[in-house]
Amino acid sequence: MPGQLLHIYGPLFINSFGLFVGIALIIFCYFVEKEIEKKHLISRNNFSHLLVLSVFAALIGGRTLYVINNWNSINNIYHFFDIWNGGFSLLGAVLALLIVIPLYLKVKRITILPFLDVLAVYVPLFQSIARIGCFFAGCCYGQAVHLPWSTIYTECTFLVPLNVPLHPTQLYSSLLLFIIFLSMRYIFKHQYNKPGQLITLYLILICCERIMIDFLRGDREFFSSRQITLLSIHQIVAIILALGASIAFIYFGRQKQVTINKTV
Q1: What's the predicted TM-score (pTM) here?
Q2: What pLDDT, in 10s, does the model give residues 176-212?
Q3: What angle, rounded to 10 degrees, do the helices at 197-214 and 169-190 form?
Q4: How far apart are CA 130 and CA 19, in angstroms?
Q5: 264 near 237, Cβ under 8 Å?
Q6: Alpha-carbon gap, residue 194 to 185, rounded angstroms
Q7: Where are the domains of the chain?
Q8: Element (H, E) at 12
Q9: How far apart are CA 129 and CA 20, in angstroms?
Q10: Phi, psi (5° rounding) for residue 93?
Q11: What residues are paired with 15 via a beta bridge?
Q12: What is the C-alpha to C-alpha distance for residues 97 and 232, in angstroms, rounded to an integer?
């Protein structure tokens, strides 16, 4: 299952991960634009600007956390920009967006929490589709295991072990993220009346997903070179983020209910 699908020029390829991320982005933008038009949360022009800014922020954040986790394999500063050869952290992208999006909305004087809540409904769908790209690319692979549904890679551009049956952790993650999306959308449609609770619930759920799936991944990174610790770097980051989101979820839950247009 090679990650590269079409050669463009030099080191540039259209790869499976990029293809699925592109598909996910189109679907994500379609649903979010429908919601913001109904609720008049942000102008189309500002949304377009925010989308472009968010793409760059996600790339930088996702690449940065990947580089931090794989610092020993980075030979020089140019490898930081070597994205076409793989290496991206979805959790790093989420952290970057949590900084950039609220700052942009604040500068534009746009109500932050309702807009973030709309994004929180459809971001898990984006991530679910992107994880399928991870599966075909061979990144984020699982540990060796002999199961009827194990995945065997015979060729790949990533460091996935070849000709070894592995947990298809990318598909596990994709399924859980899709379930999170369905749950978030149901709450948004039927029980949403306190701005801020959806974005914090989303953070709690994706952190739980990452913590669980990481125990089955074969590319875990640890603070200790001897790997004697139980939790990986991503799991520790996820736990800290989940604790902060839980506190915020409780805080927003104590606020007064507001009347919100529930048209979906």
Answers
A1: 0.82
A2: 999 999 999 999 988 888 889 999 999 999 999 999 9
A3: 160
A4: 9
A5: no
A6: 15
A7: 4-253
A8: strand 12-15
A9: 6
A10: -65, -40
A11: 4
A12: 22
